[in-house]
Design goal:
Blueprint (H helix, E strand, L loop, with lengths): L3 H22 L4 H5 L9 H20 L18 H21 L2 H5 L1 E6 L4 E6 H25 L9 H4 L5
Antiparallel strand pairs: 1-2
Length: about 170
């Protein structure tokens, strides 16, 4: 299904797109970042928070990170200060990149057993499709964040994988 090279590629893409999104977000005021814009996680800030929350949740399962300090429903307000959110994002991206370097075929073929708060029960699945979900979750919500930042008049530059991580071609 997927390979360790895919995991490393997606980790690099994720880190670079986060750098671009946060760069654009830094050009907004705090009030602009936190304004309810009708997005699933209300605001740009809330969407960025949920992304960090989701990464923490999945990486607690994949790499023994600490679980997020709040549940999913409260993820949009997990970190109130933008500078702290930026630091948490940078740390998470660095740790995801390091984890991706350690992923191998054997690890991807293993099952993961965890309790899902979303499903309300214990789950079991192969790690490979869960890693695909992990990166899809990031891309999905980062797409929402990109729409919000564009609506605020800011730009992130290219978002296509082959342009963001050029050695993929």
């Amino acid at each position: 299904m997927i390979t360790p090279a895919y995991v490393r590629l997606m980790a690099r893409y994720n880190a670079e797109m986060n750098r671009r999104i946060y760069g654009a977000a830094g050009r907004l005021t705090d009030a602009e970042r936190k304004a309810d814009r009708g997005a699933f996680w209300q605001s740009f800030h809330g969407t960025l928070n949920h992304l960090v929350w989701g990464d923490m949740q999945w990486m607690s399962r994949f790499d023994n990170w600490d679980k997020p300090p709040v549940g999913q429903k409260d993820s949009a307000g997990m970190i109130g200060d933008f500078a702290t959110l930026c630091a948490r994002r940078e740390e998470a991206d660095a740790r995801i990149l390091a984890w991706a370097e350690r992923v191998d075929d054997a690890w991807l073929a293993e099952d993961l057993v965890w309790f899902s708060g979303s499903a309300g029960r214990e789950m079991r699945a192969r790690k490979a499709p869960l890693v695909v979900h992990f990166f899809n979750h990031q891309t999905h919500h980062r797409g929402q964040a990109h729409a919000l930042i564009t609506a605020c008049g800011q730009q992130t530059g290219d978002t296509d994988l082959f342009l963001v991580v050029p050695d993929t071609a």
